[in-house]
């Protein structure tokens, strides 16, 4: 049957809060670590390590995503991916998510259904579930996610442990999300590979724990951009970081897209955020874990340089600036 | 020195995201259970019990609070209190908070400072700190809080364990927040006791673990209103609950305020939300823990009645309805 144009889509105010919570939680698969799932005052999760890793990210419509560029399903996946990436960047494995959703009353219920499907799909890829949350009325659609994780007996890999002489390495893609954003900003919808990378990042899940096992001395995910996030490590570790430009791969696909747009693919790779790659430092003269590739070195001093020189141009994203 | 009217207050877009995060986190006291606090990709908290309790609440300006009725400091305290109340209602003790804050770019930085002071003050009353979070740009001021807690080796007290024959009891205040809301809604700012109860609830911290130790079979906090929240226990436990009206105290202060406004104080007590009191059920013929007072009984069946009869009128709050 085709769509029935005589029937208006139901809004969430017509469906109501408690019915809507049922719609987005009923029949979903929880992991064995979810000891008490949605429906009570709070959730209870296993924390086998005796410690819990926790991170919160907030995504706001028109600020972090646009429904003319991404489907609700893609927005849901991205919201979970950016959060799980923070757990990955500590060297931990995720154990569960809490989702706070603020929606205008006239939001079609199908938008919330699709968003929830996206949230759940990305969560299940990481082997976890949405264990709790809150749904409220809000003038703009807002998704607030808290991810919890377990360190499996290892120490967390922080931003502050890099030491002079360490090797800097990256796992995952760089510049793809920025390329996708540039394409969308020009009004195009293809190539799908780069546009898709902006809509739904593909964090290298598993590379975080891999780095921790391999003795990573510091780690961060690329949410603000490679140079900006390396700056966070340099500042927190009180060291200097020098990138070796020849080691920083610029994918052929990005070069082609940049050429078509009159843009600079290397700039995307160096400064583009939201790819949720991992940057980590490792002791030298040891093999890197398989997902990581070397891109630079740690030295005494401060700041981030490229082949010993400052990068000219804006290096990353900061809110309200 | 008086205020310098020639100097415009700084907005958060002038201060910038990273400076603002410093302002709201620097120099604050963390509890010993905070193993890694703000400033990294994620926080790390002790979870001595091997399980972690987690709850998220989202509060939105004009929906959950108004700055013409409450100061930023009061809004901060309330946001934390409603969240810690959920941990309390599981019989757990809080261990840490994550705060996601969305603000319009033109928000005065002092508003965020005062809000942060309120968040921290209420957190410290519970002996915990804000261990992480996120600050983003948003069209409306939005506070999303995740509270984490520890069960200290006990089983969580859920909504689903009430059994016929149990006693229903309450700890904390009922109807005060609704009375305060009614006063503010008429344009008054006093009496301070009831207005203050709406601005900043006073959850009976400690009564949750107390109830768990005393063998509570079910528990919930009154965020939606006494009858509505009892309904949540009745539904989840598949039982009926009968309130004994003579046991449900209507405080003299509320009777006076209701009389002045031409309102019904008993209605506030039965249906007013946001007091964050605790309602719990206990096995009969045992002494109740000191903070609890008996208000009814659990029976076979379904639904909530008062002296055996249905309550006439709306019983609670539901979003978008």
TrEMBL record, chains A, B:
Keyword terms, alphabetized: ATP-binding, Kinase, Magnesium, Metal-binding, Nucleotide-binding, Thiamine biosynthesis, Transferase
UniProt-annotated binding residues for Mg(2+) 4: 41, 55, 86
Positions that bind Mg(2+) 2: 57, 86
Reaction catalyzed: thiamine phosphate + ATP = thiamine diphosphate + ADP
TM regions (residue ranges): none
Source superkingdom: Bacteria
Binding positions (Mg(2+) 1): 56-57, 134
Residue sites binding substrate per the record: 64, 274, 317
Domain PurM-like N-terminal: 39-149
A GO term for molecular function: magnesium ion binding
Annotated metabolic or biological route of this protein: Cofactor biosynthesis; thiamine diphosphate biosynthesis; thiamine diphosphate from thiamine phosphate: step 1/1
Function description: Catalyzes the ATP-dependent phosphorylation of thiamine-monophosphate (TMP) to form thiamine-pyrophosphate (TPP), the active form of vitamin B1.
Additional note from the record: Reaction mechanism of ThiL seems to utilize a direct, inline transfer of the gamma-phosphate of ATP to TMP rather than a phosphorylated enzyme intermediate.
Protein name: Thiamine-monophosphate kinase
Annotated gene: thiL
